[in-house]
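Hello,

Our lab assistant flagged a job as stuck in the queue for most of the afternoon. It eventually completed. Since we weren't sure the result was trustworthy after the delay, we are filing this so someone can double-check. Below is the sequence as submitted and the structure that was eventually returned. Let us know if re-running is recommended.
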Amino acid sequence: MTYFKQALKQVAIVALALGIASNATCAEPAKSGYVKANGIKYYYEISGKGDPLLLLHGGLGSTGMFAPLMPELTEHRLVIAIDLHGHGRTALGDREISLVDIGDDVATVLTQLGYKQVDVLGYSFGGGVGFRLAAQHPQLVRRLAMVSAGFSDQGFFDDIRQQQNGLTAEAFPMMKETPMYQSYAAVAPKPEDFPRLLQAMGDLMRGHYDYSEDVKKLGAHTMIVFGDGDMYKPEHIVEFYKLLGGGLRDAGWGRETMSKNRLAIIPDQTHYDIFFSKKLIDTVLPFLDGVNGSKSWEASIEGPGK
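-- returned structure --
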């Protein structure tokens, strides 16, 4: 019961963060609607201009989580935001929540919307979905930024793992007054499904997964991003980057052995506030835009125009 109460405390922290996010104003999307994929009607919004960027929210949230960051994202990117299975305006239905299945679903949504390739920014649960999309449908993903998402359930700190095990429908009475539930109830097709959503997400987190072999095969340029106060063990983060081909050797005098993939640890951020941090945008946008902000020492000495 102690861990169950701790799990609810963690959920409450996320709810407060979502409350902050939901208070931000966001322009009306240029286009929105539903696409059916494998029995689930997925809600999507499209706004902005530029190269397409798929935006995937965290667990028990929705696209609205990113409201504080949306103006900067849509300023130079065409943002395709999807409410994931059971979240926001996308109904839960009777199917279990599965990262593998949702990866396939999102591929169907993108294809039906006419996109042949996108960049992906996914946070937590959405980071896992983005990873499965890139692993299962590599032709659809050019660059992938995974924020606060690991490759195995063994990556969580032990106390966090035990807290996740305690998330069930029983948490609902303690969450009825939180911004998390209230924002869900405001848009969900069936607000009464929230206890089932809690149970389904708890069931997902209680399951075992290890995607290390898939990490090695990723074709998309990938950045993994964590806060220095995240819920993942530092050794898991390092192992993730090594699986991506980074952190195995020195990059070389002229960056000649630099990995194509990137690791970012954002200071003074936790799992519960990184998704609406301006520092996140400053970190991931250059990578997603394919910008290399560093020069070799020789090039920097030569100066511009040399």
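-- support follow-up --
The delay was a queue issue, not a problem with the job. The result is valid. The chain has one domain: 2-302. The CA atoms of residues 241 and 263 lie 6 Å apart.
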